[in-house]
Write a structure and sequence with these properties.
Layout lengths: L14 H4 L10 H12 L5 E6 L6 E6 L5 H13 L9 H12 L3 E3 L3 H8 L2 E6 L5 E5 L28 H11 L5 E8 L5 E8 L5 H12 L9 H8 L11 E3 L2 H9 L3 E5 L5 E4 L17 H30 L7 H11 L6 H21 L2 H21 L5 H14 L5 H21 L1 H17 L1 E2 L2 E2 L26 H9 L1
Antiparallel strand pairs: 1-2, 2-4, 3-5, 4-5, 6-7, 7-9, 8-10, 9-10, 11-12
Helix pairs in contact: 3-4, 6-9, 10-14, 10-15, 12-13, 12-14, 12-15, 15-16
């Protein structure tokens, strides 16, 4: 008879960490000491101090490097050591009293409510004879200063940017919105990382239905680790696959504060300077903070340039391929003769030319980002010039395709948000394939499918094309940025009243 192999069941992720959550605090401090050693292990940064020479033994537990050790000595340990030996009868009362006046103290009866605060920088104190432990917030760890945002630069406007610490980030928002309606809701995400997440909103502005939807999705996240807001964005997105971002990420406090004032929700996370804004629309990614700090006529021009640049970054290579390969009658005769002369001796069709140059530029773009900053920009610029000229001189590509790819690449940098320009980069290759196969008909089909896709997207239940499809009357800050005094005119007030 064959023996069946019995496979050992592998423990599920997080089973070890969940086993201690329901352990109750014991009245015997030595039992609590053993629980702490079993849970936290023999890590060198874990400090478990057992004071058994006092009239009533107690344990102090903290993570070195996350707490202010000087504050522990001044507020807890030093006063305890200074007490006289004749005070045994009131030692417990003095110890508890000293703990409660040292800081904001929380009391817990389960280890599951104690270990997580300790791992985040709080101090836990166990006293013999008590079936509850104290956690004291004495967090202290180094943070970087508030610098100018690197991903969203501006000529005119605030120079402050969010950092990786939630407490400082909430302060930056409070400085800009001194209103009691500003609220923050906290929760933890990740079974392993226990990452702190804050949801910021204006109570009198935010849509309660959208707020509830955001909180429900965050509470229902079933993931082991979260290290950056982009991971949360992907986990709570309701659209499945789409190249277009349905959350707006920013590291500028003024943009986040403006979004809150408009009734949007801001999701902040410990460990990243980027916050998420929802719900957003398609037009939101063409609006920059500097539009509101500059004169409205210049802002209108710049916003229109962004829209045109987005269209160029998606369609220009595909249009060039379709026209030169299938629709030469659309090209003026003189230009057609010039293009034919340039392509003489080039062994590849227009599609292969464009594909080669686009791939080369994408490689140079990634190299410029990953290389050290002092030489990254130089390598990307010099590399593009040298490779472009060398390719033309070698007869691999024509000068016209170099101009097309260069203009396309420059247009893709115009978008204020990097994630949105990434969508154009992906769709550009798909449009090139369609243009090379069916010409202008492929471009028309692509554009129709793109608009249908955009109209079907939602951001936290709100249509992605709001103000355009469905069309709304609020057009003062969509394609154009009308002046601020527009809302004070008699015409606007009468028109708004008639609605």
């Amino acid at each position: 008879m064959k023996m069946k192999r019995r496979l050992k069941r592998r423990p599920t992720a997080g089973s070890e960490t969940k086993s201690y959550e329901n352990i109750e605090v014991s009245q015997v401090v030595k039992e609590n000491l053993e629980h702490l050693k079993n849970i936290l292990g023999e890590s060198m940064d874990v400090k478990i101090l057992f004071f058994d020479d006092r009239p009533i033994p107690f344990v102090v537990c903290f993570i070195e490097g996350l707490v202010n050790k000087q504050q522990i000595d001044l507020s807890i340990l030093q006063p305890i050591h200074d007490w006289q030996d004749g005070e045994e009868d009131v030692f417990a009362e003095k110890l508890i009293g000293q703990i409660e006046v040292s800081s904001v103290v929380s009391k817990h009866q389960l280890f599951g409510h104690i270990i997580t605060p300790v791992l985040k920088g709080q101090v836990a104190v166990f006293v013999d004879g008590l079936k509850e432990a104290y956690t004291i917030p004495l967090e202290f760890f180094p943070t970087r200063g508030i610098d100018e945002p690197e991903s969203q630069t501006t000529v005119r406007g605030p120079r402050e940017g969010f950092i990786e610490t939630l407490q400082i980030n909430t302060t930056l928002l409070r400085r800009r919105i001194s209103n009691p309606q500003l609220r923050f809701k906290s929760l933890q995400v990740g079974n392993i990382t226990k990452t702190s997440v804050l949801v910021a909103y204006m109570k009198n502005k935010a849509d309660q239905q959208v707020l509830n939807e955001v909180m429900n999705r965050l509470h229902n996240l079933d993931t082991e680790k979260v290290f950056e807001g982009g991971m949360i964005e992907e986990l709570i997105d309701e659209n499945g696959y789409t190249p277009f971002p349905t959350f707006q990420s920013t590291e500028r406090p003024d943009i986040a504060a403006a979004a809150l004032a408009e009734g949007k929700i801001v999701i902040m996370m410990e460990g990243t300077p980027f916050v998420l804004i929802t719900p957003v629309t398609f037009i939101s990614f063409f609006q920059a903070a500097e539009d509101y700090y500059s004169h409205y006529d210049l802002s209108i021009l710049v916003r229109l340039i962004r829209l045109v640049s987005f269209a160029i970054s998606i369609s220009l290579p595909g249009m060039f391929i379709a026209v030169t390969s299938f629709h030469q009658e659309l090209i003026p005769p003189n230009l057609l003769i010039s293009l034919a002369a340039q392509r003489e001796g080039v062994p590849f069709p227009a599609f292969v030319e464009a594909l080669i140059m686009e791939v080369i530029f994408e490689i140079l773009r990634e190299a410029g980002i990953r290389m050290p900053r002092p030489i990254g920009s130089a390598v990307s610029i010099v590399g593009a010039i040298v490779i472009g000229e060398s390719a033309v001189a070698a007869g691999l590509v024509s000068p016209a395709i170099v101009i097309v790819v260069s203009l396309t690449a420059i247009s893709s940098f115009v978008s204020p948000y990097y994630a949105f320009s990434g969508a154009a980069r992906l769709l550009r290759f798909l449009l090139m394939v369609l243009a090379a196969t069916v010409g202008m008909y492929g471009i028309i089909m692509f554009m129709l499918a793109l608009f249908i896709h955009l109209c079907s997207l939602t951001s936290m239940g709100r249509p992605y094309f709001t103000s355009l499809a469905p069309f709304t009357d609020e057009q003062d800050d969509t394609m154009l940025r009308l002046p601020f005094w527009w809302k004070n005119t008699k015409f606007y007030k009468k028109w708004n009243a008639d609605r």
